[in-house]
Amino acid sequence: MKVRAKFKVQKLSIVAQNVPAGKDEKGVRQYVDGRLYTIHASPVYGNGDPNHENTKFWEATPNGNLELGMINEETAKLFEIGKEYYVDLSDAP
């Protein structure tokens, strides 16, 4: 199975949160103060042109939300508010 969706980033948020910082000498996971970056996106919508790609995606996925949280700031910087991204879903082995 493979499904492709198209989402538009609506909001980027940053919150203070404990993040993993490895393990101590006894193997106990340690945490430090950090940040959680979250991308909030929704499906693209039709623009009135039946041949436009976004209209076709809208007809297939008219509702939903996508939130991706990460602790890596460099990865979070790859996403921009207002920009559209493909999301590919397929069966995992």
Describe the 3D structure.
There is one protein chain. This protein is mostly beta strands and 93 residues long. It has one domain (2-87). The chain contains two helices and four strands; from the N terminus they run E-E-H-E-H-E. The protein has helices spanning 53-60, 73-76; strands spanning 2-23, 29-43, 66-70, 84-90. Strands 3-2-1-4 form a four-stranded antiparallel β-sheet. It is elongated, with a radius of gyration of 18 Å. The mean pLDDT is 91.
Structure described in brief:
This protein has 93 residues and is mainly β. It has one domain.
Tell me, rounded to a whole number, the average pLDDT: 91
Q: Describe the oligomeric state of these chains in a short phrase.
A: single chain
Give the neighbour order of strands across the main sheet.
3-2-1-4
Order of helices and strands, N to C? EEHEHE
Separation, N- and C-terminal Cα atoms: 11 Å
Helix content: 10-25%
Low-confidence stretches: none
Q: Output the structural class.
A: mainly beta
What is the fold's blueprint, element by element?
Blueprint: E1 2-23, E2 29-43, H1 53-60, E3 66-70, H2 73-76, E4 84-90
Antiparallel strand pairs: 1-2, 1-4, 2-3
Write a concise keyword list for the protein shown above.
4 strands; 2 helices; 93 residues
